[in-house]
Amino acid sequence: MEITIKRYSRKMTYEDAATLDEFWELAKRTERSLDREQRRHWDGRECDEYIIAAQGLLPYCATPEELVCQQETLDEILAVLALCTKTQRERFLLYALYDFSYAEIGRRCGCSKAAVHDSIEGVRKKFFKFFR
């Protein structure tokens, strides 16, 4: 059975349900990322109409103070991640950066959702302890 979907003015045809499930999972993850991006802009500025309208049109140049603050923040984050085990780091980065759910991370790493949850909570506790 052939399935045709129109999304963002593009028609896509799929032969089997497995490929369609992969497409929908990727689409949901993309939508969540875009929603999060609109709530808080990637470079720390609040999202407003000007930023959305000018996205890609005007180059954003950070001030030297902003660059130093960004580097210090990155150094602190890397210091906390260095305190974590390799497994905790991997699971936390899949969750925080790539927006995978606990179930997806569990399937990928070969463990349960509870183990993924415990790993991510362990990293969060280290962050809270470090920044207090």
What structural class is derived from the secondary structure elements? Answer: mainly alpha
Distance between the termini: 57 Å
Low-pLDDT sequence parts = none
- Give the fraction of residues assigned to helices: 55-70%
Q: Hey, roughly how much beta strand do the residues contain?
A: 5-15%
The largest sheet has its strands arranged as 1-2
Report mean pLDDT, rounded to a whole number: 78
Globally, the shape reads flat
**Run of helices and strands:** EEHHHHHH
Number of helices: 6
How many strand segments?
2
- What's the Cα radius of gyration? 19 Å
Largest sheet: 2 strands, antiparallel
What key attributes describe this structure?
mainly alpha; two-stranded antiparallel ribbon
Structure description:
- With 132 residues, this protein is mostly helical.
- Helix content is 65%, strand content 8%.
- It has a two-stranded antiparallel sheet.
- The longest helix has 23 residues, at 17-39.
- The chain is flat and about 55 Å long.
Question: What is the fold's blueprint, element by element?
Answer:
Layout: E1 3-7, E2 10-14, H1 17-39, H2 49-54, H3 64-83, H4 86-96, H5 102-109, H6 113-130
Antiparallel strand pairs: 1-2
